[in-house]
């Protein structure tokens, strides 16, 4: 079973940058590939899609972060990243990484209930 652990959150001022990391550990399935994603949830709001990356080359972003956030992965380190630039107060949320087993190398999933493996989350707070 795969476990995910996020790090890198914190308190920053508007306009600053942060890089979140999501380290994967445990035994993954050799019969599947993994699409990985970042979601976030602000207080009183529903969990929302931020960015996703297939095991191939497909990447997708929410419109609200496009041009500011960059998702990447280092397969040698089993780590997923989210580089967040030009942060805004509305980016304040708990950010969670997630993974989905799939047979498809370039499939992207944008719904949180598509994913079964979740990290514990890391808080990002952006002050104005």
Give your account of this protein's structure.
This protein is mainly beta. Helices cover 0% and strands 52% of the residues. It has no helices and eleven strands. The chain is globular, with a radius of gyration of 14 Å. The N and C termini lie far apart (40 Å).
Largest sheet: 7 strands, mixed
| Share of helical residues | under 10%
Average pLDDT value?
Answer: 94
Number of strands: 11
In DSSP terms (H or I, runs of 4 or more residues), the helix count works out at 0
Salient structural properties:
mainly beta; 11 strands; 4-stranded antiparallel β-sheet; 128 residues
Summary, kept brief:
By secondary structure, the chain is mainly beta. It has no helices and eleven strands.
Helices and strands, with pairings:
Blueprint: E1 2-7, E2 10-13, E3 18-26, E4 33-41, E5 48-53, E6 59-61, E7 69-74, E8 79-84, E9 93-102, E10 117-118, E11 122-127
